[in-house]
UniProtKB/TrEMBL annotation:
<dbReference type="InterPro" id="IPR036388">
    <property type="entry name" value="WH-like_DNA-bd_sf"/>
</dbReference>
<dbReference type="InterPro" id="IPR000847">
    <property type="entry name" value="LysR_HTH_N"/>
</dbReference>
<dbReference type="InterPro" id="IPR036390">
    <property type="entry name" value="WH_DNA-bd_sf"/>
</dbReference>
<dbReference type="InterPro" id="IPR005119">
    <property type="entry name" value="LysR_subst-bd"/>
</dbReference>
<dbReference type="GO" id="GO:0003700">
    <property type="term" value="F:DNA-binding transcription factor activity"/>
</dbReference>
<dbReference type="GO" id="GO:0043565">
    <property type="term" value="F:sequence-specific DNA binding"/>
</dbReference>
<comment type="similarity">
    <text>Belongs to the LysR transcriptional regulatory family.</text>
</comment>
<feature type="domain" description="HTH lysR-type">
    <location>
        <begin position="2"/>
        <end position="59"/>
    </location>
</feature>
<keyword id="KW-0805">Transcription regulation</keyword>
<keyword id="KW-0238">DNA-binding</keyword>
<keyword id="KW-0804">Transcription</keyword>
<dbReference type="InterPro" id="IPR058163">
    <property type="entry name" value="LysR-type_TF_proteobact-type"/>
</dbReference>
<dbReference type="Pfam" id="PF03466">
    <property type="entry name" value="LysR_substrate"/>
</dbReference>
<dbReference type="GO" id="GO:0006351">
    <property type="term" value="P:DNA-templated transcription"/>
</dbReference>
<protein>
    <submittedName>
        <fullName>LysR family transcriptional regulator</fullName>
    </submittedName>
</protein>
<dbReference type="Pfam" id="PF00126">
    <property type="entry name" value="HTH_1"/>
</dbReference>
Length: 303
């Protein structure tokens, strides 16, 4: 039977995207975690992780095995939650609005994990870019990109993502690499947004911030599709550095204008001040903030 501690540490490494961060997350020495994972691989007779000096990725069998390790982690958390919530049961229904650009597979994994932990909660998740009225349309939570306008709603910062400009080597070879923000006006851009979105990107920070225009090749409300079109040589794209980590490492996407760093995108969980004491809302937002990055990392490793 595989060592349970080894399985849990293997899952921790995958979620943390590396041994060093897993050591910080667990409080164990990096050498101990590495040894435990190596012993697990030896015990199973398979390679779970591909390691080199720069990258860590899952093998095909490692990706499948991780799903079971992750499920076990969830079950252990569920057992703990059962005790913790004996006197404060989390239950009821939650209607949640999530932007269309979020990965549906990633959100499905999060929803599954949440419902395993809290089986008495019913979820109604709608992907929409409409500016939903939380009270009027019956939503309990809306996941939104910031900055947010002031209102009587409560906004909790969940996490941040760092956008960067990228393009494929093929596109840059044909069209040249822009050396200044103004040169972007001569380049085609792939825009994350709607057909009504204005082809403008904000570059730089603080007093050095500038708004630059580009030639909109197309717009689409899927971040996954934006990356695919950039890989297919259709133009420059602004996407999260997390979502294209593998492509940056293997050179299939090239960062451009790095000397003009872009302000981080803030993602909030928004809810009505009337419901700010609801246990199911606070529990869901805690879970979402904690698990989103680990699920995103797994999705990147498996692609």
């Amino acid at each position: 039977m595989p060592d349970l501690n080894g399985m849990m540490l293997f899952a921790a490494v995958v979620r943390a995207k590396g041994f060093s961060q897993a050591a910080r997350d667990t409080g164990l020495p990096k050498s101990t975690i590495s040894r435990k994972v190596a012993q697990l691989e030896e015990q199973l007779g398979v390679r779970l992780l591909q390691r080199d000096t720069r990258n860590l990725s899952l093998t095909q069998v490692g990706a499948l095995f991780y799903q079971h390790c992750d499920s076990i982690s969830h079950e252990i958390e569920a057992a703990k939650a059962t005790i913790e919530n004996t006197h404060n049961d989390v239950s009821g229904s939650l209607r949640i609005a999530i932007p269309v650009s979020f990965s549906q597979e990633l959100i499905a994994n999060l929803a599954s994990g949440f419902m395993r932990l809290y089986p008495n909660v019913t979820l109604d998740i709608q992907f929409t870019d409409n500016d939903v009225g939380l009270v009027g349309e019956g939503y309990d939570i809306a996941i939104k990109y910031g900055p947010l306008q002031s209102s009587d709603l409560v906004a909790r910062l969940l996490f941040e993502r760092q956008p960067i400009l990228v393009a494929s080597p093929g596109y840059l070879k044909t069209n040249g690499t822009p050396a200044t923000p103004n040169e972007l006006s001569a380049h085609k851009g792939i825009m994350l947004g709607s057909s009504r979105s204005v082809p403008i990107w904000p570059l730089g920070k603080g007093s050095r911030k500038t708004m630059v225009s580009f030639q909109k090749k197309l717009s689409v409300n899927s971040a996954t599709m934006v990356k695919k079109l950039a890989l297919d040589d259709f133009g420059v794209a602004m996407i999260s550095n997390t979502s294209c980590k593998k492509e940056l490492a293997n050179g299939t996407l090239i960062p451009i204008l790095q000397e003009w760093p872009i302000e981080a995108t803030k993602i909030y969980g928004v809810y009505s001040s009337r419901r700010q004491l609801a246990a199911n809302i606070s529990t869901f937002l805690d879970f979402f903030a904690k698990r989103f990055s680990s699920q995103e990392s797994l999705q990147i490793l498996m692609n």
